[in-house]
Design goal:
Belongs to the G-protein coupled receptor 1 family. Helix content is 83%, strand content 0%. The chain has 309 residues and is an all-alpha fold. Helix 2 crosses helix 10 and helix 3 runs parallel beside helix 6.
Length: 309
């Protein structure tokens, strides 16, 4: 293999950077915890939609796509990184193809998760912006097409991680994939948030200047409260997104231009695996944000948990 070749996982967990036993154990524990939370939370979301006829709608199908992507992060990626660290603690040499598979799955699952998050945000924006035309704009068929495109695109984004071997090419692709998994989704979420806030303010102005009867004002007030709740949800989503993805995004850009020190242990290698863990944590936070703010989901969760108690 070319000495200039590399890949993300092997470079982050390479022998040039040794982690203390305590740090390694903490790393493994946090991945296991994140895995359990992601699997549990997203399984509840998927089961709730499957079991409840009332929850089977286009909006929740997009949420299921997000939930399944986040479930895969918890079921595959967290255990995989924990296993890698455990094996490195014992100085076990792993086949190179395992790192390639890991890089493919890391990219594919994160792209599927973040682009699914985009589709959820756009769907909510359309529902609020054009409520009367929503079912025409976002039919079941169109929903299925969008979800299929999301997953095909995520697979396509993971393929370069397998076929590229040159260090420089992998670094540049890392920036591209980071931009797609962070900058684009965040931009979409912020756009949807700004638009929903504008709609909420317009509804408030209509309420203040309304000369209609109490029943009409009450309808406007309820709509305004609904939009404000949606806006707050987007604030939480954007906040979690920035918190969990920005460190890795910044590190990816810095990694292209900063060389390793004499020991081969750069800032990227020291902290990169922790920033990836931080990204993975969004997979158990997403179902909490989306589902906990929905009364229908909370009731569905209660029914599911009662069945298994």
């Amino acid at each position: 293999m070319d000495t200039n070749s590399t890949n993300a996982t092997s470079s982050l967990l390479g022998k040039s950077c040794q982690f203390s036993r305590v740090a390694s154990i903490v790393f493994i524990f946090l991945h296991v915890l994140s895995s359990v939370l992601a699997i549990t939370g997203n399984s509840l979301v998927l089961l709730a939609v499957y079991k409840s006829q009332r929850l089977r709608n286009v909006s929740n199908f997009f949420l299921c796509s997000l939930g399944f992507a986040d479930f895969l992060v918890g079921a595959i990626m967290n255990p995989l990184y924990a296993t890698f660290m455990a094996l490195f603690m014992t100085s076990t040499r792993l086949p190179f193809f395992l790192f390639k598979i890991s890089d493919f799955l890391t990219c594919q699952t994160l792209v599927a998760s973040t682009i699914s998050l985009c589709s959820v945000s756009i769907d909510r924006y359309i529902a609020i912006k054009w409520p009367l035309r929503y079912h025409l704009i976002m039919s079941d068929k169109k929903c299925g097409m969008v979800i299929s495109c999301v997953w095909l695109f995520s697979i396509a984004m993971g393929i370069p991680q397998v076929i590229l071997s040159d260090r420089r090419d992998l670094k540049l692709f890392g920036i591209l994939s980071s931009a797609i998994t962070a900058i684009v989704p965040l931009s979409v979420i912020v756009f949807c948030y700004v638009q929903i806030v504008a709609i909420a303010r317009e509804q408030s102005r209509m309420l203040a200047g309304s000369t209609h009867g109490p029943s009409h004002q009450e309808r406007i007030r309820i709509r305004a409260m609904k939009f404000e709740k949606a806006a707050l949800t987007f604030v939480l989503i954007a906040g979690v997104f920035v918190l969990t993805f920005t460190p890795h995004l910044v590190l990816s850009f810095v990694h292209v231009f900063v060389r390793e020190d004499a020991t081969g242990c750069s800032f990227h290698k020291k902290y990169g695996i922790w920033f990836i863990l931080l990204m993975f944590s969004s997979s158990f936070l997403n179902p909490i944000i989306y589902s906990a703010r929905s009364r229908e989901f909370r009731n569905a969760f209660k029914r599911l948990l009662k069945l298994h108690v």
